[in-house]
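call fold target=AMIN domain-containing protein
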Amino acid sequence: MKKAGQRMLFLLLLPLLLLSFAGHEAAAAASSQGRIVMDSKELALPKGVILENVNGSVMIPIRVVVENLGFEVLWEQTTRKVTVQQDGKTVQLAVGSKTAEADGVSLLLNAAPKQNGGTVLVPIRFVSEQFGLSVGWDNSDKTVYLSGGIPLESPVSADPLPSATVAPAASAGPVAAVQSPAPTQQPQTNTENTEEVEGSITASPTPAVTSPTVKGAVFSENRLIVAVAGGAKPTVTKITGPDRIVVDFQGAAFASDFSGSFPGVSASGSPQGRLDVSGYLLVSEIRYALFSTSPSTVRFVIQTAGSQNYQLSTDDSTGLVTVDLNTGNSGAGTPVNTGLTGKPIVALDAGHGGTQPGAISLTGKAEKDFNLAVILKVGAILTQEGWADVVYTRTSDVTLGLQDRVKIAEAAKATLFVSLHGNSLDVGYPNRDKVNGSETYYSRSESLPLAQIMQKHLVAGTGFKDNGVRSKSLHVTRETSMPAVLLEAGYLTNPGNEAAMYSEQMQNNLAREIVAGIKEYLGL
């Protein structure tokens, strides 16, 4: 169901941010205020506010949306900054600035927020990514559709973990090894086209035959998503000098209403242009055009920062073709550090310990004990299966500083670093015992593929609500040089999460899934 939901989100996203190429539609937009509908309820727009298209992005009033989600919105008149707070998460935007901050991490917006009277308008893609909403756009009546709003009585957690710190001694008991499941299988790629591509694309006239067709495209969450019809099938090839991924739809032409982020028209009348890739460090440009008329071929070129692996998938039920750059498969361009044995080296970090117990659960249990119990189980599985070497930052209840943990991983030349924690909220926090779920943190862009894979397996292991992948500047994930993630398994201040986290069954399940996530990332 989750995969189907993601596909539906991608389908809804395709028409977004893609309005500037149709002049008559832009004129219609100027004469209409537009509407915002959230979970089938129309939201009241401030008087005089019109939903706008800026640099290919639909701009919506942030206060109207987030207040209906139960978030707190603060406005600083002197600095013209908007601060949104909920469940420990803080997002800050400034009018006129294309840089926003989420929990202290800088994010690049594809369009700067703007002020219209007393209302601040922000790009719809930012709202979708930061507040976990599915987004759709009906260009015929200028309506934004939002779904996934959280009821006020059951807020989503966004609280970052307490910082990992130090601790003294008590030894851990024996750990029973449990067998690891096979990692989740990645979809198989289609046959790759071996044709070379040089330089930029040149467009050719659109042929009379329009089926199969390419209807639209968008780049979101490091994925190129293309909507097709009439049986259009992709072939993909990787090329160097410069590094790029070429996606061809042979026998296809652009649909008459094709939508793209920065669309244009060639002298012959065929669509050509670029997709919005702002904020994505792995991709410098995505361009598209009708590459050939004999046979008719629509081509997308993904210009990447270095050799980049990908996963190709097609969904005939939705007509979506996805080129996913969030793959952990180690190809020729992604070297993996190995030890003297030739095996990958996995650094396992049990958060807190010793005099620093971490969070204290509702029934008085220490976070450090949960962290260590699961990490030792993970290490036992890895050792039993024998395909990786294991390095622990601690194997008993000892005091260890944050930089010491980093040094251990660096000295071992670890292939990857996984830190485990339990989350909590302060005693005075509203609805403290209702906030729940699992989340994964990363600090550096190269750690994002690992974070996305580990979050999937983290949720499978805990069975808790999926709070998603989050970027935050945490010492152990920031200062390590290898891909590094910090897993927040669940909330010790939530009765259901706490009871499960200290059960042998869930700890074993979680350990197996962490191992499965590591295997999937390494392509083993």
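return ok
The longest helix spans residues 367-385. The first strand starts at residue 35 and ends at 38.
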